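Reviewers of the previous submission asked for a worked example of the structure-prediction workflow described in the proposal, so we include one complete record here. The input consisted solely of the amino acid sequence. No template or homolog information was supplied to the procedure at any stage.
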Amino acid sequence: MLSAYLSLAKPRILALSVVVSLASAVIAGQGSLALGTGVLLVLSGGLASAGAAFINNYFDRDIDAVMERTRHRPLPTGKVSPLTVLIVGVALVAAAVPLALLLNYLVASFVLGGVLIYSVIYTLWLKRRTSLNIVIGGLSGSSAVLAGWFAITSHISPVPLLIALIVFFWTPSHFWSLGLACRASYRMAGVPILPVLAGTKKTAACILLSTSLVVAASLVTYFVGPFHQFYLVSAIVLGALFLTANVVLLQQPTRRLAWLNFKLSGAYLLGLFLTMALDIAAH
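From that input alone, the workflow returned the following structure tokens.
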């Protein structure tokens, strides 16, 4: 039963969100991050991410029951009660907000905003209505960047906005790759994700465009931000690998290559943010 509830928290998304937030905080603090601040950021962001995932699972349980990739999740299989999942999700979010407020109201606003964008605006409103669902839903990940930044400073600069833009541009590339790999399931579930509406070739072209914007934003961030050569070289290498995989997908938009792009996109974002933080911390 415990493993079922842990899976409902979508631990991979949770971990990526926490890393993005912590990296942003390290950059804002010019390489330093107080232990107490880091702990509060991890707890508030982690609880909020888990809560949003629980709520998302609750509202998507009918879709998940149809799709091959998700039909073995705890809710479609009846391992857990839908009402319990909803209550736990709301409770996790309710616990996250006071912890974020211990940092400041801006952090709390972005933590709560990220939850509302993902579990309400994306899941309830956009996902079943428009092919732009995941584009706008990408603002949820950007909120984690801004929560990390404002946990350290109230100073507004182009740097956190550019870093948030990286996550925003990355989100469509990541989830369109997943949608391309699971296109038949999304069609069966009636979700108007881009691969269902536009087809494989056009979706692969849009993935390449989205990734190009991600890589461009990562390089602009170097010139605008406080970064050094370690980050620049890492951004170029990671970006080249990511773009190459996208080009191969465009040439051969198969399910296997789409799944590979999906996995690679997660590794790309994790690697990019880790190198950001290490670059600043080392100087």
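The chain has a mean pLDDT of 94. We consider this example representative of the routine output the project will generate in years two and three.
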